[in-house]
């Protein structure tokens, strides 16, 4: 995988996020099939645009509103607006 944070810098109010890995088991321990596509709406902040107003920093884990993301380069990174961030943890 290409190191996305080194090659891309978000603009305006965008946040570059490395998405959490896909789980192949449910919380109850049931194995999930390969065609199951879970909603991935959490990850780690890799880079911030210059006009981000949200209280986040590089390295923070965040949860964002699903379906607001734009996939970047591969399925492991996404770009979202700062107002799509719901919480950091």
Provide tags for this entry.
4% helix; 6 strands; mainly beta; 36% strand; 10 Kd Chaperonin, Protein Cpn10, Chain O; 89 residues; single chain; 6-stranded antiparallel beta sheet
Describe this structure in words.
- The chain has about 90 residues and is mainly beta.
- The protein is built from one helix and six strands.
- A six-stranded antiparallel beta sheet has the order 4-5-1-2-3-6, with no helix packed on it.
- A hairpin with a 1-residue loop joins strand 4 and strand 5.
- It starts with a helix and ends with a strand.
List the helices and strands and how they pair.
Blueprint: H1 4-7, E1 14-19, E2 42-48, E3 61-64, E4 70-72, E5 74-81, E6 85-88
Antiparallel strand pairs: 1-2, 1-5, 2-3, 3-6, 4-5
CATH class placement: Mainly Beta
Written as H for each helix and E for each strand, in order along the chain, the element string is HEEEEEE
Integer-rounded radius of gyration: 14 Å
Helix content: under 10%
The pLDDT mean sits at: 84
Shape: elongated
Q: What is the number of strand segments? A: 6
What summary fits the major beta sheet? 6 strands, antiparallel
Strand content of the residues, in percent? Answer: 35-45%
Indicate the CATH architecture.
Roll
> What ranges have pLDDT less than 50 throughout 5 or more consecutive residues?
none
Tally of DSSP helical segments: 1
- Main-sheet strand order equals 4-5-1-2-3-6
Number of domains: 1
CATH topology: 10 Kd Chaperonin, Protein Cpn10, Chain O
**End-to-end CA span:** 25 Å
The class by helix and strand makeup works out as: mainly beta
Determine the CATH superfamily: GroES chaperonin
């Amino acid at each position: 995988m290409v190191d996305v944070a080194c090659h891309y810098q978000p603009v305006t109010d965008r946040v570059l996020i490395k998405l959490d890995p896909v789980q192949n088991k449910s919380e109850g321990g049931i194995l999930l099939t390969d065609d199951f596509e879970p909603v991935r709406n959490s990850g780690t902040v890799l880079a911030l645009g210059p006009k981000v107003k949200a209280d986040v920093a590089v390295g923070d884990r965040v949860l964002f509103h699903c379906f607001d993301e734009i996939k970047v380069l591969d399925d492991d990174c996404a770009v979202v607006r700062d107002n799509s961030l719901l919480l950091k943890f």
